[in-house]
Amino acid sequence: MANKIIITQEDLNELSTVFGNVDINGDGYITASELQDALNQVGIKIAGHEVRELISRHDTIVKDGRLNYEEFKQLYISLKQDRDYGAKMKGLVRKASGVTTVGGMSGTSAEGTTHSVTDDERVAFCNWINKNFAADPDCKKYLPLDPDTSDLYTKGNDGVLYCKLVNLSQPGTIDENTINKGAKLSIYQIHENLTLALNSAQAIGCNIVNIGPEDLHAGKPHLVLGLLWQIIRYGLLSNIDLRANPGLAALLMEGETLEEFMKLSPEQILIRWVNYHLGRSGCGRQIQNFTTDISDSVAYTHLLHQISPPDFGVNTTPLHEHDLHQRAEQMLQESEKIQCRQFVSANDVVKGHYKLNLAFVANLFNTYPALDTPANIDLSSIHEETREEKKNCNYAVELGKQCKFSLVGIDGKNIYDGDETLTLALVWQLMKAYTLSMLTQLAGTGHPIVEKEIIAWVNEKLQSGGKSSRINGFNDPGISDGRVVIDLVDTCKPGCIKYDNVKPGTTDEGKLANATYAISTARKIGARVYALPEDIVEVKGKMVMTLFACLMIRDYQPKKK
């Protein structure tokens, strides 16, 4: 009979810290890739399929292929019981200094529920916001945020700063005209802003499961920090690819192809970039992570000296300091010479705070990549990268076939190799199936919703709202100017459109402005739209269909309630 596992309060405190360290993107769930990266950092080498088996074995509550806090607790305890892993797991624990524990902040929180949030992240995010929006007149009333107080959770709870951050990470995602601004916003306007921010964050790739407008308005620290990290991380890493920075081709290893290089994650590319410059410096140092390998500031000091323009006077004098905290502080003073002192404090460097050190290095790369594109590299055939293992790709295609998708001539290798046409064919069918299944559930018709029913709904809705615009189908050229989408959004939520902001739509610029305004307002009223403004302007029928379907879902949701 197995011994009963006793969980002490010390274990729970340790577990909460470990969960935050492993959950790199801050979405409240542990994925297979996050778990494998974390285990690698402490010397536990497990193959990808074994990690997936670990996840599957402990994914017992939601069964979504990832672990929530309760599921991760069981995995963590089981690994600690293993004498070979127990000591190594300690390496995932940062000492409790700089960690604040807060109680559950909702009526649904179980008794005794606590969440650990790091003061380091609060300080880092406050400083990042202060720096980037200091000159924005819309943000004047919020700034500066005091990093030593709860300003981050309270001053931004009307949604304006969240919307601004989304646009900073992915410019043009939100039409500024749709953001409610002013000296005093009503609770209704605040809810609209927060809904707009969340739906727009989701549109650029953030996971907003279990985060609602009410959570952000209440300033729940763990949810606020989790969302902010996802948004900031997206912006920092979005340009770390060959299309945005062709100079990255200089990082190819001997015999490595562009296709192989493009399968690296942004974090792996950043490590490759650091090591490239360390190699050029002749210091004899290389790194494998952004935790223990950078904690003595040696790699950072050489990196800064290597990438900084000569006129800035960046030097390696911090290496003469023996105290690690003092050396880290001196190194950061060197980074300040090139205006790159962001995200980390000396203490964050010494203790190896993964998220903040990743952000520090990404910001350095975005500011001073110091790379020249090799003359003998042909970048003309670059396609969107895929980063999944071949087994995952085969499994994805198999699941598609089980869903009765049309996948003739498509296999896992096509997805793994980044075949753009065939990959998009699969992704489109996934999007369509998901959207129509959601719509069918809400409509309650007893049969699957088909595309002609969506067209009929659009025209009936426009007519009931007194609008003159109509569509003949999802490829109707009249959709291009965005006005029919604008009219439909206004019909779904009367008065939400300010027609003074609508352009005639006779020029490409006017069409794009209308499309951006339409999509932003749709997200603002609660429609989780993932189409792009360009999809409207270019009348991409498939994406236009999803746009109208998402508005139809939003229209049916009140009836569902």
Describe this structure in words.
The chain is mostly helical and 561 residues long. It has 25 helices and two strands. It has a two-stranded antiparallel ribbon with strand order 1-2. The radius of gyration is 25 Å and the shape is globular. The two termini are 49 Å apart. The relative contact order is 0.07.
SSE-based structural type: mainly alpha
- Main sheet characteristics: 2 strands, antiparallel
- Count the beta strands: 2
Number of helices: 25
N-to-C SSE string, H for helix and E for strand: HHHHHEEHHHHHHHHHHHHHHHHHHHH
Mean pLDDT: 85
Shape: globular
How much of the residues is beta strand, in percent? under 5%
Helix content: 40-55%
Briefly characterize the structure.
This protein is mainly alpha-helical and 561 residues long.
What secondary-structure arrangement, pairings included, does this model have?
Blueprint: H1 9-22, H2 32-41, H3 48-58, H4 69-81, H5 83-89, E1 99-103, E2 114-118, H6 119-133, H7 151-154, H8 160-169, H9 187-203, H10 213-218, H11 221-237, H12 258-261, H13 266-281, H14 298-307, H15 324-337, H16 346-351, H17 354-367, H18 390-402, H19 412-416, H20 420-443, H21 451-464, H22 483-492, H23 508-524, H24 533-537, H25 541-560
Antiparallel strand pairs: 1-2
